[in-house]
From TrEMBL:
One of its GO terms (cellular component) is plasma membrane. GO terms for molecular function: aspartic-type endopeptidase activity. GO terms for biological process: signal peptide processing. Belongs to the peptidase A24 family. The chain crosses the membrane at residues 29-45, 52-72, 84-117, 129-148, 160-179. Residues 9-113 form the Prepilin type IV endopeptidase peptidase domain. Keywords: Membrane, Transmembrane, Transmembrane helix. This is Prepilin peptidase CpaA. InterPro entries: Prepilin_IV_endopep_pep, Prepilin_peptidase/N-MTase.
Amino acid sequence: MHPLIISTLIILLLIAAWQDIRYYRIPNILVFPGAIIGVLLNTLLPQEMGAFGLLTSLAGLGVGLVVLLPLYLLRAMGAGDIKLMAMIGTFVGSTSMLIITLYILLAGGVLALGVALLRGRLSRLLENLKIMLLIRIAGSSMVSISASETFPESTGKLPYGVAITAGTLFYLATAHWVAA
């Protein structure tokens, strides 16, 4: 990957993480121009190992957009997080986006544990996890939750842009080491 592509992505990720920590929002003014920049850089800059190009960048945008969409639909993740994932996809392509997603989910788990510990909510987090596992083990056909029933109390908001940034930075670091 071209150094200008990597450095631009890193700057955008750090800004997104900072915004998410401060305001629990990742602004469109960051991700939309960032996605355009990702497409343009991959289309215009020479690549070391073959052409990355426009179509691969757009495919990365698509994968980034849909890979965590189920979490958004379950209201476990915000729209800004999904748009940030799409932006990252324009820089790295669709194949890399799948690997990055694994790193992001792992970083998100570590972040959730850390935040729960800092807020003194670890027992609530573990209780919620137990309930989710029991529902999964019982199977959806055996468990019925009506609209009037409430789910357990949340452990609080999580700036998931931090996990997205950490997972992507880990990928960039390890991809560079493996390629070297």
